[in-house]
């Protein structure tokens, strides 16, 4: 539970996104929540507190997030935590889910959210440039280095 709480804590600390990267955070969350859902077989919950580990973790994380983000309503928090379990097989969906959560947090504080899309924008620009460079004649012949010059 401590590992899960700390990972979710880092994911919800939107100041960490520029350092970690949204995709790296999503990948970590996928691994952690997949392990919590499928690989941890030891009963984590006290008797009568839940019927399985997933339910226990979901309830505990909802409680923790509600404590730290009191401006979010219960449905927003529940959907966020359920999404951690639902999207734990797809990094892209987890990334979008984490971004949505961070946007909710930032909007409440009136903060800018445009930096949450920088990683995808940079990859999109890189891909477009590579596609453009792949078209014969687009690059200036003097800008292209021959294999002989590189040696």
From TrEMBL:
Family: Belongs to the exportin family.
GO molecular function terms attached to this record: nuclear export signal receptor activity
Subcellular location: Nucleus
All residue ranges annotated as the Exportin-1 C-terminal domain in the record: 1-107
InterPro entries: ARM-like, ARM-type_fold, XPO1_C_dom
Stated name of the protein: Exportin-1 C-terminal domain-containing protein
Organism: Panagrolaimus davidi
This protein's record includes keyword Kinase: no
Record key words, sorted: Nucleus, Protein transport, Transport
GO BP terms, alphabetized: protein transport
Gene Ontology CC terms: nucleus
């Amino acid at each position: 539970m401590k590992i899960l709480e700390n990972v979710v804590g880092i994911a919800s600390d939107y100041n960490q996104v520029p350092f970690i990267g949204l995709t790296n955070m999503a990948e970590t969350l996928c691994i952690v929540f997949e392990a919590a859902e499928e690989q941890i077989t030891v009963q984590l919950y006290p008797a009568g507190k839940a019927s399985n580990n997933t339910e226990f973790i979901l309830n505990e994380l909802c409680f923790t997030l509600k404590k730290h983000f009191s401006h979010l309503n219960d449905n927003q928090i529940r959907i966020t935590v359920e999404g951690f379990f639902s999207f734990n097989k797809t990094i892209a969906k987890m990334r979008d889910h984490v971004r949505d959560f961070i946007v909710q947090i930032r909007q409440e504080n009136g903060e800018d959210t445009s930096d949450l899309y920088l990683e995808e924008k940079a990859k999109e620009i890189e891909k477009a440039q590579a596609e453009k460079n792949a078209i014969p004649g687009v690059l200036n012949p003097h800008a292209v280095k021959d294999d002989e010059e590189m040696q």
